[in-house]
Specification:
About 30% of the residues lie in helices and about 25% in strands. It is of the alpha/beta class. It has one domain: Ribonuclease Z/Hydroxyacylglutathione hydrolase-like (Metallo-beta-lactamase, Chain A, 4-Layer Sandwich), CATH 3.60.15. The strands form three sheets. It has a nine-stranded mixed sheet, with no helix packed on it. Strands 10-11-12-13-14-15-16 form a seven-stranded mixed sheet. Strand 15, helix 11 and strand 16 form a beta-alpha-beta unit. The longest helix is centred in the first third of the chain and has 24 residues. The two termini are about 40 Å apart. The structure holds zinc ion. Zinc ion binds next to helix 3.
Length: about 375
């Protein structure tokens, strides 16, 4: 029984008469009962297969699968994501740290038009690949967070956009947009909610031990490590990431995705408080699977698929086992770009599938 897979229920406890039997001999009535039980098991199995997430390695599917919905590129330590919105057309969310890798990934996906490039925040592991996205593609607009920190990253994006004559805009909670079958709400940053987390003018100066004050001060002026790399914890820019709640219309229903940039617990909790219904089929795990996560967010999302975009051997120790366990404990099958390569979600709501393809197996 166990060899047939964990999806098969062990069924009711056997009756006293069945003890010690081989399961093949018995009276006709019991045989009929076994047939009925077998049929029930078969039906259960078929239902499970139909509802199950199917995972397919790249060798068995065209690349990308024609009905692809979402892709997480393999760009090393960083995020570069795409949502298919039409033939050869995708909304791109972040670009990873390497222009060549971003360009290569979008080329493999067949993306030639980008109606919108969203940059969740201005850390290098999310923006330095921008020139690779712009290379040979029609990019209609670049949308960013309202937090222009680190300033160098914000200036670079402005310069790239200007050189390519691409208009820029700023995302804010409450914004709703649609391209083809893909629509989304911007959940974060929320200027109103952010002001709530800012300490009110205190009667006395905040002490250095005040965690909120400390976090904000470090994020804006004193990056602890790698201000260009963006791996530091407790950073203001991370917590200002643009977060998108995406709905993709498919033939048999909507597929929902939650794309979270690098938000950490303070923003995760604020997002959850403002939007209790965060249920999604696909979760882009925040901040490359770092240790700083709000378990309530994972429970609320309850994803079928969790994607961790992360570079092999990165110096930050991402992802931490605890966060991987948090995602799988919330019900998700976890995919990670360092091990799996490019991760593509495709199919429909009722038959959601995931395919992966490693860079070294690509042409
Ligand atoms: Zn990052």
């Amino acid at each position: 029984m166990n060899e047939q897979g964990p999806w098969i229920s062990p069924g009711p406890e056997p009756g006293p008469g069945s003890r010690g039997g081989d399961g093949l001999r018995g009276d006709p009535n019991r045989s009929g009962g076994r047939k009925a039980a077998g049929a029930a098991l078969l039906i259960l199995l078929l239902i499970c297969i139909a509802a199950a997430l199917l995972f397919i390695r790249s060798q068995t599917v065209a690349w990308p699968p024609p009905d692809w919905i979402f892709a997480a590129c393999d760009v090393g330590q960083g995020d570069a994501l795409a949502l298919a919105v039409g033939p050869a057309e995708a909304v791109v969310i972040d670009t990873g740290p390497d222009p060549a890798k971003a360009d290569h990934c979008l080329t493999l996906l067949g993306v030639r038009k980008v109606p919108l490039l969203v940059l969740t925040h201005f850390h290098a592991d999310h923006i330095d690949g921008v020139p690779g996205v712009l290379k040979g593609r029609a990019v209609a607009e670049i949308e960013t967070t309202n937090d222009r920190d680190p300033p160098k990253g914000a200036s670079e994006v402005a310069a790239w956009a200007s050189a390519a004559s691409v208009p820029t805009s700023v995302a804010a909670a409450g914004e709703h947009r649609r391209f083809g079958p893909v629509s989304w709400d911007v959940l974060w940053p929320d200027p109103a909610a952010e002001s709530l987390t800012t300490p009110p003018t205190p009667p006395t100066l905040p002490t250095p031990s005040d965690p909120v004050h400390k976090s904000r001060r470090r994020g804006r002026h004193q990056p602890r490590a790698s201000p260009r790399g963006g791996g530091e914890e407790g950073s203001g820019p991370n917590n200002s990431s643009v977060v998108l709640q995406v709905t993709v219309a498919t033939r048999d229903g909507p597929v929902r995705l939650l794309l979270t940039g690098d938000v950490e617990p303070p923003s995760q909790a604020a997002i959850l408080a403002a939007h209790p219904d965060l249920a999604a089929d696909v979760l882009k795990v925040p901040h490359h699977g770092s240790a700083h996560q709000d378990p309530d967010l994972f429970a609320a999302v309850h994803p079928r698929v969790a994607v961790i975009s992360v570079g092999k051997g990165n110096t930050y120790g991402h992802p931490v086992p605890r966060t991987v366990a948090l995602a799988s404990g919330a019900g998700a099958r976890v995919f990670r770009t360092d091990d799996d390569g490019q991760v593509v979600v495709f199919g429909t709501a009722a038959r959601l599938r995931v395919a992966t393809r490693r860079q070294d197996s690509m042409p």
